Amino acid sequence: IASQNKLLPDVIQNSIYAFAFDLQENNKAKSIKGDRLNFFMGILRNGKPYAAPSNYESPGDKAMRMYLEKQREIEKKRADMEEEAINLAFNEWFSKLSDEQKINLLPDMLRRNASSEKLGKSKMLESSARSHFKTEIWPNLKTEIIANATTKANEQEVV
């Protein structure tokens, strides 16, 4: 077929991919009377490429889609893990703060009106503290956690 110069080699290859996809994914073999190879070769011998089905996905596109799906899954797991770690670390850190330290985390305007009685129930305090924790405390703590885990993993490999 390629030597007849009716179709370019890449068109032939794409036709092979599309036909194989149609056979595997769309059960095309059921609608073909006679030999599948003869059916396919007949189309190409007439100088026409095999028309890819509407749901066709090239091997390259499929590989890229699968890669992206896997990367999204990994990224989501990583983000969920980090969010859970932040919440646990925040709760531990926050519980160790004195009332005065907690009040100092509030914006100036709110700090003036803060009292110890209201402090325990303040959503604004927790929000301010969480924001402070995420930006000021967590980055260093995360680095420390990862460094400690890496050191322990390396020590276990040596043993």
Describe it for me?
By secondary structure, the chain is mostly helical. Helix 3 crosses helix 7. It is elongated. The two termini are 62 Å apart.
Quote the average pLDDT: 89
Q: Residue share in helices?
A: over 70%
Structural class: mainly alpha
Poorly predicted tracts of residues = none
The H/E string reads HHHHHHH
Give the strand content. Answer: under 5%
Strand count, sense and barrel status of the largest sheet are: none
Alpha-carbon distance between the two ends? 62 Å
Any idea what the radius of gyration is? 31 Å
Tell the overall outline: elongated
Number of helices: 7
Number of strands: 0
Compact overview of the structure:
The chain has 159 residues and is mainly α. It has 7 helices and no strands.
Question: What key attributes describe this structure?
Answer:
single chain; 159 residues; mainly alpha; 7 helices
What is the fold's blueprint, element by element?
Layout: H1 9-26, H2 36-45, H3 59-95, H4 99-104, H5 108-111, H6 116-119, H7 123-158
